[in-house]
Amino acid sequence: MTIQDNFKKAMRSYVYSVSIMSNIDDNKNLNAITVSSVTSVSIDPPSLLVCINKTAGIHDSIIKDSKFCINLLKKSQQDISNLCSSFQEEENRFKNDKWDTTDIPFLKNAQANIFCKVDEIISYHTHSIVVAKVTESKYSNEIDTLIYVDGSYE
Ligand SMILES: Cc1cc2nc3c(=O)[nH]c(=O)nc-3n(C[C@H](O)[C@H](O)[C@H](O)COP(=O)(O)O)c2cc1C
Q1: Fewer CB within 10 Å, N- or C-terminus of the chain?
Q2: C-alpha dist (Å) from residue 147 to 48, 76, 86, 111, 129
Q3: Phi-psi region for residue 28, left (φ > 0), alpha (ψ -120 to 50) or beta?
């Protein structure tokens, strides 16, 4: 087993929540990607970070001062996680009535919606670490968050 194999195995035993990062780019294209790497950074300023693979479709639309939403999924929304983590489904991600696309696209029935503005982008090998300021947060009081652990949803 390589260092990488052992690291992957160790990381699979973490319990993750699952979010969809969504935005609209300058050409009015809607983008969405399933992410588990969302972490809060600070309360003052309210900020979070998310790590995005440089090969992901959404990557190049994430630029300084651009806006996006982090949509934390409910247990009933595994299908949206599958849509936004499968390259083959790229065309279908917004072909449903789950989204409000009036402005920054967001999932209407998510566990939480955290609206953000990109502050810093740190390049690290294959990934960009995106640090963003939070502009608005909405949430459901009843906790029913989709969980991902050891490669499976719970
Ligand atoms: C549970 C889960 C969590 C993921 N977390 C991330 C993540 O934090 N960052 C990332 O770049 N890709 C993550 N991925 C992989 C992307 O969702 C996937 O590669 C996606 O297809 C890339 O977007 P694209 O198809 O538009 O290129 C995750 C996938 C799953 C299933």
Answers
A1: N
A2: 19, 11, 18, 12, 22
A3: left
> What pLDDT, in 10s, does the model give residues 37-74?
999 999 999 999 999 999 999 999 999 999 999 999 99
Sign of CA dihedral 140, 107, 18, 148: positive
Domains of the chain: 16-147 (2.30.110.10)
Residue nearest to atom 21 of ligand 1 (CA): 85
Q: Is 38 in the pocket of ligand 1 (CB under 6 A)?
A: no
Residue with CA closest to ligand 1 atom 16: 85
Is the shortest distance between the CB of 104 and ligand 1 below 6 Å? no
Residue 80, token pair as written in the block: 């949206």
User: Which atom of ligand 1 lies nearest, measured to the CA of 52?
Assistant: 11
